[in-house]
Amino acid sequence: MGSGGKAAFARRDFGGAGNAAAGRGIGRDQVSERPRYIAVEGPIGVGKTTLAELLAAELGAQLVCEQPDENPFLSAFYKDPRRNAMSTQLFYLLQRYQQQGELVQGDLFVRGGIVADYLFAKDRLFASLTLSNDELALYERIYQMLRPRVATPDLVVYLQAPTPVLLERIRHRGRAAEKPIRTEYVEQVSQAYAEFFFRYEEGPLLIVDVSELDFLANADHRAELFSVIRRTRAGVNHWTRR
């Protein structure tokens, strides 16, 4: 979730990314050895939904996307984040949990696998940025009840870009609800993501610098990135197109 709030939200340490118990991924495709459950992540404006859509089409996978337009509190949050953070965050948490529950119940085994444009564990990242101490304590109780029932991706693709690039992409897509977003908030979110994935230990991680990468319009860029994703097997991997 994004914010146009003026005040800087203090980041809180919500523990290592791999501390909470969670369901395991479903492994790799027996023929291609590629991950069958891939999550694409990154800060607002980085292009995670676009990449998830393209990757799902390339792999013949089922696409699972967040539905921000369904959140009735989002517009109010952008205007007054302090007042509306809790309701907005809980809506997202429960929406993501419902989607993840459907995956665990069988969608993970669909032909072609799954590509999602979010990682469930990142929900706490935004909660730590936007909620008061009391709100965060309540949120954590709810989160910890839900987390063990969520599957862990076999691969996370984390997209990075500098703040000016993110701001330009946000402005370019022209969503009315995102107009109040301030530079300070985008910087905070980017830094929080960097810290989160620095500690991520739940599975293979591919970190991609998309500053000079146009995987939507440039077929060569797209093919190179898809090739790197297919080759990623384990550990933390970094890729920048040169």
Task: Please characterize this protein's 3D structure.
This protein is of the alpha/beta class and 242 residues long. The protein has one domain: P-loop containing nucleotide triphosphate hydrolases (Rossmann fold). It is 43% helix and 11% strand. It contains 8 helices and 6 strands. The protein has helices spanning 48-59, 74-79, 81-104, 123-130, 133-146, 163-173, 183-198, 219-231, and strands at residues 37-41, 62-64, 114-116, 155-160, 205-209, 236-240. The chain has a 6-stranded parallel sheet with strand order 2-3-1-4-5-6, with helices on one face. β5, α8 and β6 (236-240) form a beta-alpha-beta unit. α3 (81-104) runs antiparallel to α4, α3 packs parallel to α5 (133-146) and α6 packs across α7.
User: How far do the termini sit from each other?
Assistant: 32 Å
Question: Looking at this structure, what is the CATH superfamily?
Answer: P-loop containing nucleotide triphosphate hydrolases
**Biggest sheet architecture:** 6 strands, parallel
Second rung of CATH, namely the architecture:
3-Layer(aba) Sandwich
List the secondary-structure elements in sequence, H or E: EHEHHEHHEHHEHE
Protein structure class: alpha/beta
Helix content: 40-55%
What is the beta-strand fraction? 5-15%
